Amino acid sequence: MGKARDYIPALRFGNKIYPEDLAVGNPWANFWYVDGDNGSDSANNGSAADKATKTIQQAITNAERGDVIFVRTKAMATGATDPARYTENIIIPADKDCLSLIGVGTGRSQGGLPQLMTGLTTTQALLTVRAPGCYIANMGFNGAVAISGGTTNTGGGILLDDDGSTKTAFGTTIENCHFKNCKGPTVTNAATGGAIQLSGAPWQILIRGNRFYKNVGDVVLLNTSNSVPQDVIIEDNIFSGPAANVDCNLYLAGGSGMNGVVIKGNVFQQLPAIGSGSVKRFIYATGCTGMLIGNYFGCETCVGGTEITFKVGGTGAEIPATMHMAANFGEFITGTGAGLESGEIARI
Amino acid sequence: MTRPKKTAKIPKVKKEDLDYEKILGECHDGEDYKLQMKDGSVKIVPKSEVDEQ
After folding, report:
1. What is the per-residue pLDDT for B12?
2. A-side interface with B, Cβ within 8 Å?
3. Which residues from A are below 8 Å from B25, CB to CB?
4. Please, which of A32, A202, A221, A265 could form a disulfide with A169 given CB 3.0 to 4.6 Å?
5. Does residue A91 contact residue A57 with C-beta atoms inside 8 Å?
6. B 1-53 residues with CB below 8 A of A?
7. What are the distances in angstroms from CA A271 to CA A36, A207, A316, B19?
8. First-to-last CA distance in chain B?
9. Is the pTM here over 0.95, yes or no?
C-alpha cells in the first residue's frame, strides 16, 4: 500500500495542505507559525511552517483577530540540562481578540513545551494579554534569569491586563501550560505577582490543567481597580511547591476579591513557607464568593495531628464564609490517638 | 513500620565528593552547577553546596 501523497502532484513535490485549506476546526482562522531556530522576522511572514517568523511577537503582529499561532519548541543541544527558550516579553494588543497562541511540544513539562523567559524588560510580564477571548495553551513560562549574568524577571508569567476601556482580557483560557520561577516585584510576596496575574480585573477566566512549580504566587489577583472579576474557574491544576519557594498558591484577595470563583480538582503541595514570606497560605481568598471543591492539600487536616485550618484566619488558607467547601482533603494521620477523623477539610 | 519523614530533604553532597576539576557552568535555571569531576564524569550539584566549600 503506497502513500496517496505520491499520487497528488502538489504533495509529491513537497507542498503541504495547511489547516486554512480545510473546512474543519476553525474555518475562519488564518494559521501562523513561529520557529525560533529557523524562522526569520524580516524574510518571512509566518504563513507557513517553512516561512515561519523567528519571534512570537512578530507572528502576533502579523496575525488578525481570531487567528491561530503555532509556536515550535526550540532545539536543545546534546547534553542540555535546560530547555532552549524564547527570550521575549510578548503583548497581545487590544485589537487581536480571540487569538490562539499554541505551543507545539511533546507534553506539559519544562523541556516538552516552547518556553518563554525574560526578554530585555525584566519588570514586564512574559506575556501580557489585552484582548478578550484569547486562548493560551501548551506554553512554558519561566521567570528565572534567561542568560548568565542577567536579571531575574519580576513581572510575572502572564498578565491579564484589563481596564474595561482601552484593553480587556475577559474570556481568556489558559490551559496545559507550565509555569516556573514566576514572581512579582517583591519576590517574597505573592500579592505583588506570580505566574498568572489578573489586573483590572477581567471576568470569565478559565485556568485549567496547568503545572505550576516554584512560583512565588501561582494565580494572583493584583487589584480590582476597574471591576471585581466574576466567573473565574481554576480547575485540574497542580500548584507550586516546594514550600521554601512559594508564598501563596492562589492569592485572590487583591482589591475586593472575586465574585464567583470555582476552585475544583486541584493539587496543592506543601504549605507555602518561603523565607520572609508575606502570606504563607495555600489560598488567600478574602472578599471572594465561590466554591472550593475536590481539591487535595499537602498538609495535615485531621484531629490528632498538627491540624492546618481553612477558614477566616486559617493557618492553611484564608477562606471567607462566602466561599463554601466540599470534598477537599488533606493528609490523614493514623495512630495518633483519640478523635481520629478523616482528612476531609472542614471549617473548624 | 517506620514513618517516613514529613519533609523530604535532598541529601547534602559530601565535601570529598566535590573534588571537581572545574565548573562547567550553571544549569536548572541557575540553581545548580554542572561540575567536571576529576574522573571525567559530570556531576550536577546545588550551587549553595559548592559555594559553601
Report:
1. 59
2. 81-82, 142, 144-145, 148, 180-181, 270
3. 148
4. A202
5. yes
6. 7, 25-30, 32, 34, 44
7. 38, 21, 7, 36
8. 37
9. no
Q: How many CB pairs under 8 A join A and B?
A: 19
If phi over 0 gives left and psi between -120 and 50 gives alpha, with beta otherwise, what is residue A37?
Answer: alpha
Question: What average pLDDT does range A37-64 have in this prediction?
Answer: 97
Does residue A223 contact residue A254 with C-beta atoms inside 8 Å?
Answer: yes
Identify any residues that bridge with A300 across adjacent strands, giving them in sequence order.
Answer: A331
ipTM of the complex: 0.78
Contacts of A148 in chain B (CB under 8 A): 25-26, 30
Task: Inspect the interface and report whether the beta carbons of A82 and B34 lie closer than 8 Å.
Answer: no
Q: At which residue does the C-alpha cell 495518633 appear?
A: A336
Range ranked top by mean pLDDT from A68-77, A141-150, A303-312, A330-339? A68-77
How many angstroms away from the CA of B29 is the closest CA of chain A? 6
CA distance, residue A301 to nearest chain B CA (Å): 14
pLDDT score at A210: 98
The SS3 call for residue A103 is: strand
CB within 8 A of A236, min separation 6: which ones?
A208, A209, A264, A265, A266
| CB spacing of A144 vs B44 below 8 angstroms | no
